[in-house]
Amino acid sequence: MAELLRIDSDLFSQHVVINKGNSDAIFNGQPVLDSNGVMGQVMAVSRFSSRVILLTDPSHGTPVQVNRNGLRSVARGRGLNKLLQLEYLPHNSDIRAGDLLVTSGLGGRFPAGYPVGTVISVKDSPGKTFSEVTVEPTARIERSREVLLVLPLPHDKLIASDEVEVIESDDVVSGDR
Length: 177
Description:
The chain is mainly β. The protein has one domain: Thrombin, subunit H (Beta Barrel). It has helices at 155-158, 169-174; strands spanning 2-9, 14-18, 31-33, 38-45, 50-54, 61-66, 72-77, 84-87, 100-103, 115-123, 132-137, 146-149. Strand 3 (31-33) and strand 4 form a beta hairpin. The chain is elongated.
């Protein structure tokens, strides 16, 4: 757990500073959540504090999927209006207002299944290749005072050693197992 110390919010960047840093084993890229969902990720760490880029920052993208059907996309921040947009969804995509978006787990930064936002509108404009999908974050970005920093599973816990089958290169060539 960490507390917000400062909010740096302008048209081009959406950052907060939290009261945990190197001395607390915080690391760059560490996922940050509030009680409702994904809030962002750590982007800079000092000894006793860290800077967090919020998912509403225009330079931040989060791999997501629609909880209802598994459709994948990237949710990108839109700045001061505190909304997100989904990128590169064709007009025939199965997405609608009210759909819950969760982290997809792709990219390895955010574990799969954490709430990111709810679709509030889908617009298909003639002449545009992709739909305009607007998303409201589930995290209470303007109200949260405390955040949770997610620790990754150690690599040896991700795949138990007895579940891995080692295949020698000579065996693969000859087809023997």
